[in-house]
Amino acid sequence: MNYEDVLSERVQSIQPSGIRRFFDLASEVEGVISLGVGEPDFSTPWHICDAAIYSIESGKTHYTANQGLFELRKEICSYYQRRFHIEYDPNENVIVTVGGSEGIDIALRALIDPGDEVIVMNPSYVAYTPGITLSGGVSVPIELRQENDFKLLPQDLEKAISEKTKVLLINFPCNPTGGVMSYEDYAKLVPIIKKHQLIVISDEIYAELTYDGTFASLAQFDEIKDQVIVISGFSKAFAMTGWRLGYVLANPALTAAMNKIHQYIIMSAPTAAQYGAIEGLKNGWPHVEEMVRSYRARRNFIVSGFNRIGLNCYMPHGAFYVFPDIRSTGLSSEAFCELLVKEEKVACVPGTAFGDAGEGFIRVSYAYSIEHIREALNRMEHFLNKFK
Ligand code: PMP
């Protein structure tokens, strides 16, 4: 039996992650140092771990409510209210998910019928386009450009809309570009979203990692708030990637629809992780602030480092990635990353892993220590000297 033939067309049509492919390549090279991984290098703050351990010790080892522990949902709502002035109700508007990843999946599956169009940024996080395909939708990419600070412009959004458009999927602060949208930037999109009755899936997982100015969300605009599904989670701000915990915030009808999928495929998010997250939201903020301070210092260090060694590098305003322009080398993104791993033992991710608009760029994570980044930059300087 040829097992390729039994696979669904949807699964056959998606490609394995371009990030993973690079890591497999890098793992074969001895002494390689990586600037590739999209996760905090910090360990989860101890008091969060403690709360989770204590929950297990006290026998809290069962399923929770499908939507998640009420206390956690209450803390999530109070956090969104306190930080971003957006009101949500713990019963009507929240589902605790298995990471932001599950949130993206259930949001898309709750909304998409075959052939529905989803407008997605290019470049964008690797899971979006495959997620759209798996839900039966059609991706309509909008190219984001460095000269526009990697923002989504109203005229580009207007152009991408057709009568089949149902969803706009955005992510600011953005993986991979580090671009952010301000309240004023979003205000220009609001009339378009309202006029065309778009549902916005807003992936705000990097909200806390905003370095200049304040984080803004489309859900802050009352006239379209009900059209916005917020995706977020604990992986980035609280350094909790391995705990697999996130959440979605949406109007009651959409929450109920997503919860139908969630209750059948997941039941409930990991219980100990939920107890840890309650502790994080209550008492974790000094740690978050400390990590953000550290990311900001690393951002400044790596951007000036790239510009010094001759790669034009945009100053990102959020997340923990830089997206340097490598076109001056004459190499494609893939060739650049392959040669860099082989010759200098530094692993980065080609911009094309995030969509074809990433050609000419590489994605570099700065969720690493300054010493680690310094060593990688030294090796890259040596590499770049060959192209002078
Ligand atoms: N969205 C974006 C933009 C991400 O970068 C990531 C993780 N790299 C996720 C969602 C998923 O995060 P998690 O499932 O760990 O919450």
Automatic annotation (TrEMBL):
Per UniProt, what is one GO molecular function of this protein?
transaminase activity
Keywords (alphabetical) are: Aminotransferase, Pyridoxal phosphate, Transferase
> EC number(s) per UniProt?
2.6.1.-
Taxonomically, the superkingdom here is Bacteria
Q: Where is the Aminotransferase class I/classII large domain?
A: 31-379
InterPro entries named among the record's database cross-references: Aminotransferase_I/II_large (IPR004839), AspAT/PAT-like (IPR050596), NHTrfase_class1_PyrdxlP-BS (IPR004838), PyrdxlP-dep_Trfase (IPR015424), PyrdxlP-dep_Trfase_major (IPR015421), PyrdxlP-dep_Trfase_small (IPR015422)
Q: PANTHER family from the xrefs?
A: ASPARTATE AMINOTRANSFERASE, ASPARTATE AMINOTRANSFERASE-RELATED
Name of the protein this chain belongs to: Aminotransferase
Q: Which organism is it from?
A: Amedibacillus dolichus
